[in-house]
Amino acid sequence: MTTTDRSAHVERFGTHGVWGWWGQFSPEQAAEFENLGVGTIWLGGSPEHLGPVRKVLEATEHVTVATGIVNIWNTDAAKIAGEFHALENDFPGRFYLGIGAGHPEATAEYTTPYSAVNAYLDVLDDEGVPTLRRVLAALGPKMLRLSADRALGAHPYLTPPAHTRIARETLGDGVLLAPEHKVVLDTDPVAARKVGRPPVDKPYLHLRNYTSNLERLGYTAADIADGGSDDLIDALVAHGDEVAVRHQVDAHLAAGADHVAIQVLGSQTPTIEVARILGAI
């Protein structure tokens, strides 16, 4: 692959995207996000098939759609590859397959994630899923390097800009770095933390791949305990008015990210919040 090939794929993501759980966004909302100029719609969770991706692609015309993530433990790589090719046939160039190993607490057969992801990628290679149409969930240095070697790049989840800076150093230039970041549009920090803390605490502050990553960044056991310290929650969930939130989100771009996926918390109308954030600067 050439640097030009990779950069063209990276550019498809745009600088800002939206992140939501499988089925969270209606077709109408997906179309609204596209009209707002969002570069990518991320569909999160661990589905067993790519049906929800098709619904979003059908509702839009050109926006990039990516999974964040397909879990290797509850999907068959060859079957996912077949679904990828079907989507590629119907919506050429628009879908990127994000995969990851999830976390050990949720998976009885969880073994070494690095080896398991490598084996899954081997099957995708055999089935003809292009390297540059794959993105890996990655937090630690080993998985980050794998995302540079065997995919377009990395999609870290639940990370502050401090992690983005380290991730860029690990990945090197030209490799997609697309972290997710949660936001609450509320100028009252106490109220914002009341919305932001529960989805951070459960399950993530009880899952060792996430807590280990936070500890590598210098957060202590006290920061992680009891729902997370205010400092930790503020680092993982941007809050304030649209200008303040936009500055916090864009700190990932300043730290070396190519793209940041915005996950709006505490709202039934995320298109409105995203419009306010994207129009803030």
In short:
The protein contains 13 helices and 11 strands. It is of the alpha/beta class.
Q: Which key phrases capture this entry?
A:
single chain; 281 residues; alpha/beta; 11-stranded parallel beta sheet; 11 strands; 47% helix; 16% strand
Topology (elements, then pairings):
Blueprint lengths: L2 H10 L3 E6 L5 H10 L3 E5 L6 H9 L4 E5 L1 E2 L5 H14 L4 E6 L12 H14 L7 E3 L4 H10 L2 E2 L6 H11 L4 E2 L2 E6 L3 H13 L6 H9 L4 H4 L5 H7 E4 L1 H13 L5 E5 L5 H9 L3
Parallel strand pairs: 1-2, 1-11, 2-3, 3-5, 4-5, 5-6, 6-7, 7-8, 9-10, 9-11
Helix pairs in contact: 2-3, 2-13, 4-5, 7-12, 8-11, 12-13
Largest sheet: 11 strands, parallel
What integer is the average pLDDT? 95
Beta strand %: 15-25%
Q: How many separate helices? A: 13
Amino- and carboxy-terminal Cα gap: 36 Å
Poorly predicted parts: 104-110
**Helix share of residues?**
40-55%
Rounded Rg: 18 Å
Output the structural class: alpha/beta
Shape: globular
How many individual β-strands? 11
Protein architecture, described:
- This protein has 281 residues and is of the alpha/beta class.
- 47% of the residues lie in helices and 16% in strands.
- The chain is built from 13 helices and eleven strands.
- Strands 1, 2, 3, 4, 5, 6, 7, 8, 9, 10 and 11 form an eleven-stranded parallel β-sheet that branches.
- α4 (77-90) links the parallel β4 and β5 (95-100).
- α4 packs across α5, α7 (161-171) runs parallel beside α12 and α12 (242-254) crosses α13 (270-278).
- The protein is globular, with a radius of gyration of 18 Å.
- Mean pLDDT is 95; it is low at 104-110.
